[in-house]
Each structure stands twice: as structure tokens, then as C-alpha cells.
Sequence to fold (334 residues):
Amino acid sequence: MNAFGFSSNNSKPQLIELKTPEATGRDLLVEISAIAVNPVDTKVIAGIKEPLSEPKIVGWDASATVTAVGEDVELFKVGDNVFYAGDVSRSGCYASHQLVDERIVGHAPKSLSATEAAVMPLTSITAWEALFSRLKIIAELDTGKNILIIGGAGGVGSISIQLAKVVAKLNVITTASRTESEQWCRTLGADHVLNHHSDLVVQYRALNIDDPDYILCLNNTDQHFEAMADLIAPQGMICSIVGTQEKHDLDCLKSKSAGFVWEFMFTRPMFKTSDMLSQHHLLNKVSQLLDDRQLISTLASTLGALNAENIVKAHQQLLTGNTIGKLALTAIID
Fold:
């Protein structure tokens, strides 16, 4: 098999040839059809502190075909088309083949291309877990409540808006800072779009609607913490996926009996939690919603085949912080 690896935090991606691994246990061996690039890819590379003797293969978003299954596999068979985000503690998808635990893999949407499917798993798992596991939204009971999604035009925001509208049936207030990103959010179903570079409290209160029962922060927790604490409704919940550099006083949430919780989609596979299988089920639900046209793929651009030049181009685009939707690359060309 071929793959692209990184030996240091400032190295260019290098093509490496490896022995194709064997599937054992609950692992699937898949041949990768397309991948998506994500901010986590560049963060993992930046975290390589010392030069590595064996280059690290990153990437955690792909669509693929199953080519072999471990002896304990129950959910898939050879030939199945799948999509998944994988496990950040294992080798990634900047490769021709990959091993992935079946419990965090879903059946790929039949109506989408490989690239359209590849961009969905990581962000869909993140958004679904944030909304329904962390914020504990119950679709039938919480219909019509308000959610503020800070950073709506990126990958996670793009699917969060859709899930909040289609599945949870919430009133969605989101943020964007440019005309094109605001329009993108409205296309996905946002009811109101604020500018996260301006005062969120003033803008939100000008809408003359109830304070948000839920806040999902996808953009700079440090910058927005005080505004979130001010805006959150009594007994509301705040969830963030963005780590902090500063210390924040959670006592400001006490009088409201409000909560703050983190979402990290790799928690279940990293710690082999007893409910790992929930990611398989939620990916299948997302796949069906996509096939039913209730959700749309968040693919914004396909940059070409998985090669060193296109990887660098994709990473440079991500690092601008201005990416709308998701970026994809097609399979390695032998």
C-alpha cells in the first residue's frame, strides 16, 4: 500500500510504501476512494515535537470499499461501500488502504459520490454527539427551542445547522463574518445569522427572541465565553469543540443552573468506550438522511488526487480559517 506521511511538524508530505496490513478482530481493511482534510490533520502534524523515524500518517475522514474483514466482524462484508472518521490514535487515511474498527464505520450514502460522502463522517459525528449526547437535545420534546451555533459556515457548523433544523427542529441562530459564508448558512437552514466579529450579545438581543436554550461553540471559545455565559437561558447548556488558552470562571453559570460540556468525537474510539457502536448507528442515520435528501453534503471543493502538492494546498487553505464547508481529495493514483 502507499501512503503520505509527515516526519516532523514542518516537513512536506512524503510518499511511502508500506506492507498492506491484515484485518483481525473487529477491524475492516478498506481501500480508500476519497478523503476529506480537516483542521485536526494540521493540528496533529503541528504536535510532532521531535523528528520521527517512521512518518506519521494523518487524516480522519474517508469513503472506501471493504476489501477484507477480521474474524469478529459482524456489520460489514467484503465489497461494502463505507464512510468513517476513524480513530485519531491510529494510522490515518492519507493512504491507499486503512484499518478501521467496524463499530465506528457507517454504510456510505448510495446517492452521493465518493468525495461527497468522504467529507461527512467527522463533522457529522461531532455535530450529532454535540447536539444529542452533550447538549442532550430530545427532538420530539425540544422542538421550537433556540440554539446559537457560533461558527456556522465551517465543516462542523455546516452539518450542525442542518441537523438542528431537520432532526431537532430547533430555531437556529448562527454566526458568520462574510457575505458568502452568511449566504451559505442561510442556504443550510439558519433562521438568523449574526457576525461573530461584532458584539454577539447586542446582535442577539436585537432579534427580540428568547435567549438560547443551547449554544454550540465551534469558533474560539476564549473569545466568546463571556457572551455565551451572558446569553445562555436559565437551565441551558453550552457545548464547545474548541480548546481554551485561558482560564474561565464557571461560577458565572451557577445562578442560571447552566452547564458547560466538551465534545471530542474521538473520545469513544480512543478510550474504547462501551458505546462505541453508537457512532456506527449515527453514521447510518446520517447516510439515510442524505439519501432521503433531508441533508445535503457539505463538500465545497475537490482539489484533485491525494498527492503531496494537493495535500499542501488543502492544508494552506484550512490554515486561512476562511474555508466554507469541506475540502476533499480523491484516491491516491498508483
In short: The domain at 2-120+268-330 is CATH 3.90.180.10 (Quinone Oxidoreductase; Chain A, domain 1). The mean pLDDT is 96.
